[in-house]
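User: Just a sanity check before I run the rest of the batch. Below are the structure tokens for the first item. I only need the designed sequence back.
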């Protein structure tokens, strides 16, 4: 990621931000964590228990002093342990929460219908995969918010990451409907948390070259089409714009924005 330039300094001074979904330096969440740190936040990371060491290496490279907190959003016990673990680190309030978690097995990508000729066993397996994908990719947002709810207060900001769900993108398969469900959860949470002064928004990013994107069939074709359509152009290797926009939402600079999907995509969406 290119070092951010031209930003006011200290947008997140004296704010504590929890970032989920950091797996590798190329992760969008890693770029968000870096920009948040540069803007003065205390940044804490979570990592899946199976890949905790990998997330820890990213945290070390960023110079984060706090240990990575284990979190499996599909496990109720792991979610219940999150707030106590954060309290053990001296965290009593979360000013920002970044949800950057999604999962869909390969059989759910490409198309929403099962392959022609798929038998009962394959269809049953696909149904199980879809249930888990929904839990991890969509239902995990309200589950995560619920887990840290006592730490959220007036001025706190929650940001999740989505991808244009208004159109059908080749190869995206079930992730399109799952992202639509995630965006619906954003709107519902914005209403339910509004009285507490907590904002909930989503960033809809253009395609970025991450490990997860590599599993999408014909991702390169999608990326080329996107770059050609975007009035501002689009670099799939640079998550800086997404990270900076996320940090803006985490800051106090957009105090009346909630329940929104903010498109950070080079303008490709307006072209159609």
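Assistant: Here's the designed sequence for the first item:
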């Amino acid at each position: 990621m290119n070092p951010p330039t031209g930003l006011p300094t200290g947008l997140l001074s004296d704010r504590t931000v929890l970032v989920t979904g950091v797996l590798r330096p190329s992760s969008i969440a890693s770029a968000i964590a870096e920009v948040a740190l540069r803007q003065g936040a205390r940044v804490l990371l979570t990592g899946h228990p199976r890949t905790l060491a990998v997330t820890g290496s990213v945290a070390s490279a960023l110079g984060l002093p706090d240990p990575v907190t284990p979190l499996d959003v599909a496990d109720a016990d792991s979610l219940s342990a999150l707030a106590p673990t954060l309290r053990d680190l001296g965290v009593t309030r979360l000013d920002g929460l970044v949800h950057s978690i999604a999962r869909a097995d390969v059989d759910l990508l490409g198309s929403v219908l099962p392959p022609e000729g798929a038998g009962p066993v394959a269809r049953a397996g696909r149904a199980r995969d879809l249930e888990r994908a929904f839990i991890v990719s969509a239902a995990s947002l309200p589950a995560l918010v619920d887990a840290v709810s006592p730490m959220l207060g007036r001025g706190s900001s929650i940001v999740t990451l989505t991808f244009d769900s208004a159109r059908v993108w080749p190869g995206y398969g079930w992730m399109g409907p799952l992202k639509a469900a995630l965006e619906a959860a954003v709107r519902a949470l914005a209403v339910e948390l509004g009285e507490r002064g907590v904002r909930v928004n989503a960033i809809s990013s253009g395609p970025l070259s991450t490990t997860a994107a590599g599993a999408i069939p014909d991702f390169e074709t999608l990326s080329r089409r996107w770059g050609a359509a975007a009035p501002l152009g689009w670099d799939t290797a640079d998550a800086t714009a997404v990270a900076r926009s996320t940090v803006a939402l985490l800051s106090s600079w957009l105090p009346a924005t909630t329940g929104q999907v903010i498109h950070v995509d080079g303008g490709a969406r307006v072209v159609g």
